[in-house]
Amino acid sequence: MSDLSPVPASAVVRVDLPQQPYSIAIAAGLLDRLSVQFQDVGLTGKQVLLVSNPVVFKHYGDRAIAALEAANCKVTTAILPAGERYKTLRSVSKLYDVALKARLERSAVFLALGGGVIGDMTGFAAATWLRGVRVVQVPTSLLAMVDAAIGGKTGVNHPRGKNLIGAFHQPSAVAIDPDVLRTLPAREWRAGMAEVIKYGIIWDRELFERLEAAERLDRLRDVDADLLHHILTHSCRAKAEVVAKDEREGGLRAILNYGHTIGHAVESLTGYRSVNHGEAVAIGMVAAGRLAVKLELWNAEDCDRQTRSIEKAGLPTHIPLALDPDEILAALQADKKVKAGKVRFILPQHIGAVTIADSVPRDRLREVILGAMGNG
């Protein structure tokens, strides 16, 4: 197929939190109807700080501003560099500077127009500006649509670890327009597919089987409208259901970190440059799957099914050979999910269900890391 067909239907997924429930709206053309979204959540006529990166803003900035102005909003823009390595307190400080200059009050709304990096930083700035203002997420990457924009996790990276500085701050609304994926770079599409596959493994067997049955997953143009709609709605629903049961990661929500433990170590040790987040998660899922097999929690056949789906999505399955296994083990100890000095792993039991393990033998973990590097 040469072009992406229109999504066959719109959908609304509720995130049923007791204190601040909100909706994830999914519909083609939604970017141009933000005025309706703002009216629905009572944000019409507010000061809005629209945060984006140069590439996304070039494609969609004017349309977003026009839609917000149709809601009688006074729009101020802040453009931050693209890339995980810019997800820092320094970048967030620039948002504070813009907010101060624009005299944004507590009634203001921060709006993230971009991928996961922009969403994380905008959410964190909103959580901390004047002790908290509202935020709306308008994700433009697949990864942000199915994961980063949902659930209220916000934050920035520390030089020694990913997302070590942050806050929980739920959005007032999430608006997903699948049409914007047309301009998404192919590598970023593949990165998002890692999170989609993750949901299939941890929560939604039907989603995984749909992905497994697809001829190709590595290019948007080969994913038909029905499958794209299924990917978006099922992934968002999986995230929403988990978050509604455990908003602040007291227990169940930890399963959303499947593939992220080793993945975050790979990201940080490569300086957030050569391996992007989705690629790191893919590597981490393969490693976690093999670890589960070694610990006799999972069968080798399902582990191979996962690996084949990751490969079909054009994602890497091996840790870069340039990395030192001992440095990876050390980086795991700096992960924010460490509890009582023990690294917490999410390990699959069967497709659609995982378990939380915090007593993984170090020798087994080292074996898996060496194997994932092709050294054993």
Give the SSE map:
Elements (H helix, E strand, L loop, with lengths): L10 E5 L6 E5 L7 H7 L6 E6 L1 H16 L4 E6 L9 H13 L7 E6 L1 H13 L5 E6 L2 H7 L4 E6 L2 E8 L4 E4 L9 H17 L2 H9 L11 H21 L14 H10 L7 H18 L5 H13 L12 H9 L11 E6 L2 E5 L4 H11 L4
Parallel strand pairs: 2-9, 3-4, 3-5, 5-6, 6-9
Antiparallel strand pairs: 1-2, 7-8, 10-11
Helix pairs in contact: 3-4, 4-5, 5-6, 5-8, 6-7, 6-8, 6-10, 9-10, 9-12, 10-11, 10-13, 12-13
Explained architecture:
Catalyzes the conversion of 3-deoxy-D-arabino-heptulosonate 7-phosphate (DAHP) to dehydroquinate (DHQ). This is 3-dehydroquinate synthase. By secondary structure, the chain is of the alpha/beta class. The protein has two domains: 178 residues, Rossmann fold (3-Layer(aba) Sandwich); 179 residues, Up-down Bundle (Dehydroquinate synthase-like, alpha domain). 44% of the residues lie in helices and 17% in strands. It contains 13 helices and eleven strands. The strands form three sheets. A seven-stranded mixed beta sheet has the order 1-2-9-6-5-3-4. Strands 7-8 form a two-stranded antiparallel sheet. Helix 4 packs across helix 5, helix 6 packs across helix 7 and helix 9 packs across helix 12. It is globular, with a radius of gyration of 20 Å.
